[in-house]
Amino acid sequence: MAITLAQAIRNAIAAEHAAEKFYLRLAQSTPDEKARQILLGIAAQEREHAAGLQDVAKRLVAGTLPERADRHVNVIESAPGAVDAENLSLREALEIAVDAENGAILYYDALATTSSGDAAIFFEHMGKEEEGHAVAIRKLLEQAV
After folding, report:
1. What is the pLDDT of residues 75-101, one digit of tens each?
2. pTM of the model
3. Domains of the chain
4. Dihedral of CA 15/74/76/123: which sign?
5. CA 132 – CA 105 distance, rounded (Å)
6. At CB < 8 A and 24+ separation, what contacts does 39-42 make?
7. Which residues contact 121 (CB under 8 A, 6 or more apart)?
8. Radius of gyration of the chain from Cα atoms?
9. pLDDT for the residue numbered 50
């Protein structure tokens, strides 16, 4: 079953909001100040991604977005939103975050290759942003050894 551009954007918005909440919870639960600042920065970027997706939707989607995300949202980076960060070690949470960012990269790459024009350029940019998050989280993981 194919997913519409409108549904793909709605799913991405939901995933970005879930990721933001996860990174905020994770930042609050870590005693490491440097890690906290990095995680708060990633949370802010996830919030900006959701806003950017809303703007893209206004330009690219005729009518309104679907009311809610569908089951496809689970393959993006919403998995962190469902995880209770307080019950995880920093290392475990960062490993989940890297996996989630990798899922987001794949999702945005797929949208970029199946879209054209401004949509393709925007989704490619989103994938690169998520790659930056994954790199930052991997560096935190290396330090958490």
Report:
1. 555 555 555 556 677 788 788 889 889
2. 0.80
3. 5-143 (1.20.1260.10)
4. negative
5. 10
6. 39/140, 41/136, 42/133, 42/136, 42/137
7. 112
8. 15
9. 92
